[in-house]
Design a protein that fits this description.
The complex is a heterodimer of chains A (402) and B (525). Chain A is of the alpha/beta class and 402 residues long. Chain A folds into four domains: 74 residues; 184 residues, Rossmann fold (3-Layer(aba) Sandwich); 36 residues, no CATH class; 53 residues, Orthogonal Bundle (Arc Repressor Mutant, subunit A), CATH 1.10.10. In chain B, helix 4 packs across helix 6, helix 7 packs across helix 8 and helix 19 packs parallel to helix 21. The longest helix of chain B has 17 residues. Chain B has two domains: 182 residues, Ribosomal Protein S5, domain 2 (2-Layer Sandwich); 313 residues, Rossmann fold. The chains are: A alpha/beta (402), B alpha/beta (525). Chains A and B meet through helix 6, helix 14, helix 15 and strand 14 of A and helix 7, helix 14, helix 21 and helix 22 of B.
């Protein structure tokens, strides 16, 4: 597209890093100019998009080589439209960033189905759990989960995506608002590093950009633009996720929402979206359906008599990597046989399993129902959690969602 | 003429011997007290004069100077009224010096000449060992606990002077009964649940069998009592956390003689009521409100150092209900005493060390709305929960060996068959376990250090395998390992088994151990 010299990327980064630069102004400066040419014109004060020479003095004081070296040292890639690694789905997008920065491998987005899982930062326990499970199940299906590495839903989605220990699970992708050298919120440092190591972290803000209210809505439009489907897990009325939903709607990208309690304020935004006609999402299958990767209705019962599983055949368009010769997609809305037994369970384990409800059960209740000793019940619980039959947390046990 | 009368004043929780020197000479009539007296001592001039006059004793119309030696030490309290009055009488020639030879006096005087008890009589008497001691009638038992000489009592100044000058006999019965109380050993005395625990107006501990259900919580109480482990209970309002905590003192063995004396001294100094025997033999139970200030919790004060709640709980239980509501300053101030078993309070005027070895029992809600715990029941935002959980700093949380979720009992628990185990039965197991710990040279297992654990609590191969599994899965840290090891030691002691820590003990210890997950409600898979 542009004549690419060695220097081009550094020039783009230097332009993006000028004080007072915004994505919109940057796009104007680079519209029709190669980064190196734009840089020269800005320094000379002759750039037509900068008639007031707003950036001239700052540009004259900046050292392009040093900017490039600092990005090299930090391992941050500078991506220009058309260069390798620049997400192909952004090309032609009306709001495409003129420069994109990336940590990790930016090409992981290509040739894979992508789902954005976003939501409020002040999420409830329910929202976090749904986001986490949804992400884990989708990643296991080879779907790239894109999110914003924020507190709440975003963090839970990334945590879920990283949890899926499937060999061919899709890599995680994050789009953040700050510069790639500034982790925000700092409580997500671990997640941030893991996402960068196993997938990619994108940002359109140059290094050194601190969190401020303006960057996050801009970040949300990139999340929407990168995705095939946007899933909003929880959102307050008028929350930031609404911006993502609007951005997706403008690009004709389907928006799905997870229904929540009508009493919960954290679900007010998502429930309102559902009323407006958004597709409701209960689990990963619903999302897969939404991106036409899976189709409900063709459920077949497999001859696994103990574990009756519902299987959906993956049906997808020609070049889709997920089609994988019609390999059955793992069921997410499995029918739970209420009195499922497994030959691996001992007598005590069976007694403990029977004592646990589908809703969370306390240790105390298990003790009363089984009338076994504390050590015996503890052992049985441990083993059942290990087998994946029970899940536990904060003193509660419940039957695991299979 | 000069008289010197031995007495004592309180500094912190220690008594310091003071010599009250009185000089009566010719000159302009006046009454001065020197030797760094505080306001209460300066006011004693007026009390002493009024008491002498209303007892029908003469007041010397001469120059009276009182010096409190050593003069460099600041003295407070009204306990010097009596020695000053006696000194004035001796110096004025109204009382034979031989009559007060080898006798110390401690007591406050009323304007009518009556003799009143003073706080801290136990430690005051301790510092006056080797002397006969005259105190108010109500202080006799306290003084008798530690005094080596005769403890003599009188209800009024006039009566006392008559006895000292031999015109009236000492009340023998009172003196004897004090001696008996002092010599009685708390170990021999039967278990007295009705004995006051030292807390004002608080009934004695709850009976454990009154708690329905809560098998795990009852077990945790037993383990905490046996091993001296600090205990954190997390649960919604109405789940019985306070009731459970109130059961704990009943499970603890009676205090040994030296601890009982320490506890009695602290309670005496603070002016709290003592049991009829004078000696506090049951572990105290303190439950300060969450508005408690740092000084009230730790001890201190400007004019005289007062022991705080943690010292009043020495030898017993400190229960912090609604722990999340305590100020961060108060909570963090607990860390050092929890580690050292004593607290050193330093002020510009001096520093004092108060004993503070107690079992910390804390209760809090899982989140601000209180309904957390049961996944999905909580309406708090993640941020609110995190903020709430952060109120307990990680170092403080580390001090808790046991943490358990307490849920509201459900119907099948309330209707659970059979009466639950009684306090006595559990207390018997606890004291057996404590005996085993005493054989290792520590009062309880929580005091065992890491290296000592490896030596004193060998684990069976199955137990080691189980622990390793947890470490590899990342759900047990190195620090957590020590705590689990200590807990498992106590559990093994309670089961009465041998020296070896078995797999089942580790299993139970892992269940009871303290994790931050409990507060954050984090899911584990």
């Amino acid at each position: 597209m542009y004549p690419t010299t060695d220097q081009t990327q550094e020039h783009a980064a230097a332009l993006a890093g000028l004080p007072g630069m915004t994505p919109v102004r940057l796009s104007k400066l680079l519209d029709g100019f190669s980064p190196a040419l734009a840089w020269k014109a800005v320094r000379a004060g002759t750039h037509p998009a900068d008639p007031r020479r707003k950036f001239t003095i700052a540009a004259r004081g900046a050292d392009v080589d040093e900017v490039g070296a600092s990005y090299d040292r930090a391992g941050v890639a500078i991506l220009l439209p058309g260069s390798i690694g620049y997400p192909s789905m952004l090309i032609g997008d009306p709001g495409a960033p003129a420069v994109l920065f990336a940590l990790g491998d930016p090409t992981v987005l290509e040739d894979r189905p992508r789902v954005a899982i976003v939501g409020t930062r002040s999420a409830t326990h329910y929202g976090r759990q749904v986001a986490s499970e949804l992400a884990a199940d989708l990643v296991a299906e080879g779907v790239v989960v894109v999110s914003g590495l924020a507190r709440g839903i975003d963090g839970a989605a990334h945590a879920g995506a990283l949890r899926a220990d499937v060999v061919d699970g899709a890599p995680p992708v994050a789009v953040v608002g700050t510069g790639l050298d500034i982790v925000y919120p700092s409580s997500n440092t671990m997640l941030w590093e893991q996402v960068a190591a196993r997938g990619a972290v994108f940002s359109e803000s140059p290094m050194g950009t601190k969190p401020h209210p303006g960057v996050f809505p801009a970040r949300n439009r990139i999340i929407a633009a990168l995705s095939d489907v946007v899933v909003i897990v929880e959102s307050h009325h008028g929350g930031g996720s609404q911006y993502t939903a609007d951005a997706a709607a403008r690009r004709s990208i389907p928006v799905c929402a997870v229904p929540g309690s009508v009493m919960s304020r954290a679900s007010a935004g998502t429930n309102a979206l559902l009323v407006d006609g958004c597709t409701p999402v209960r689990d990963a299958t619903d999302v897969l359906v939404a991106i036409s990767l899976a189709r409900t209705g063709k459920e077949e019962f497999r001859a696994d008599d103990a574990n009756r599983q519902v299987s959906c055949l993956g049906v997808a368009g020609g070049g889709d990597p997920l089609a994988r010769a019609g390999s059955p997609i793992k069921p997410h809305r499995a029918v739970r046989a209420s009195n499922r037994t497994s030959p691996r369970m001992s007598e005590h384990q069976q007694a403990v399993f029977d004592a646990v409800d589908d809703t969370p059960t306390t240790f105390e209740t298990i003790l009363i129902r089984t009338d076994l000793s504390i050590a015996t019940v503890a052992e049985a619980c441990d083993n059942l959690v290990e087998q994946g039959v029970l899940s536990t947390g904060a003193g509660w046990w419940s039957r695991a969602r299979s | 003429m000069i008289a010197a009368i031995p007495s004592a004043v309180l500094i912190g929780v220690d008594g310091h011997r003071v010599s009250v020197e009185v000089h009566v000479s010719n000159g302009l009539p006046g009454f001065t007290v020197v030797g760094l007296p505080d306001a209460a001592v300066r006011e004693s001039r007026d009390r002493v004069r009024a008491a002498l006059l209303s007892s029908g004793l003469p007041w010397p119309l001469r120059r009276v100077t009182v010096n409190l030696a050593p003069s460099g030490m600041r003295k407070g309290g009204a306990g010097l009224d009596l020695p000053i009055a006696i000194g004035v009488l001796v110096a004025a020639g109204e009382l034979d010096p031989a009559a007060v030879e080898g006798t110390a006096f401690v007591g406050e005087l009323g304007l009518d000449g009556s003799l009143r008890p003073v706080p801290g009589t136990v430690v005051l008497a301790e510092s006056l060992r080797g002397l006969h001691l005259v105190v108010a009638v109500d202080s006799a038992r306290e003084a008798g606990l530690v005094s080596e000489g005769d403890v003599r009592t009188s209800s009024a100044l006039g009566e006392l002077v008559e006895r000292l000058s031999g015109r009236r006999a000492w009340d023998e019965a009172a003196t004897e009964s004090c001696g008996a109380a002092g010599n009685g050993s708390p170990q021999d005395s039967p278990h007295h649940p009705e004995v006051m625990t030292g807390s004002l107006g608080r009934p004695p501990h709850n009976e454990l069998s009154d708690v329905r259900g809560q098998r795990l919580a009852r077990r945790a109480l037993e383990v905490a009592a046996a091993g001296g482990h600090h205990l954190l209970m997390v649960g919604p309002p109405g789940s019985g956390k306070s009731m459970l905590a109130n059961c704990l003192p009943g499970l603890l063995p009676p205090l040994d003689r030296s601890t009982a004396l320490e506890v009695t001294r602290i309670h005496s100094v603070t002016g709290l009521p003592l049991p009829p025997s004078g000696l506090i033999e049951r572990p105290p139970f303190r439950a300060p409100h969450h508005g408690t200030s740092p000084v009230a919790m730790i001890g201190g004060g400007t004019s005289w150092m007062r022991p705080g709640e943690i010292s009043l709980a020495h030898g017993g239980v400190l229960f912090l209900d609604e722990m999340g509501e305590f100020s961060a300053e108060v909570l963090d101030a607990l860390r050092q005493p929890l580690e050292d078993g004593e607290v050193r309070v330093s002020r510009a005027r001096g520093s004092t060390t108060f004993p503070a070895r107690f079992i910390l029992v804390a209760a809090m809600n899982p989140c601000p709305c209180g309904e957390g715990g049961a996944p999905g029941a909580c309406r708090c935002t993640e941020a609110a929960r995190e903020r709430y959980a952060r109120r307990l700093s990680a170092p403080l949380l580390d001090r808790f060996d046991i943490a358990l979720p307490v849920a509201r009992p459900q119907v099948d628990e309330l209707m659970a068959p059979g009466p639950a185990e009684r306090t006595d039965a559990v207390a018997a197991r606890v004291s057996d376990a404590r005996r085993l710990a005493a054989g290792r040279g520590v009062p309880f297992n929580a005091a065992l250090s890491g290296p000592a654990l490896d030596q004193l609590a060998p684990m069976s191969s199955a137990a080691v395998a189980l622990i390793e599994k947890y470490i590899w899965s990342g759900s047990l840290s190195a620090r957590g390992l020590h705590r689990v090891h200590r807990l498992a030691r106590t559990l093994a002691d309670l089961s009465g088994g041998g020296d070896m820590v078995e797999e089942e003990h580790v299993r139970e210890a892992l269940l009871l151990r303290c994790t931050r997950d409990l507060l954050l409600g984090v899911e584990r898979r």
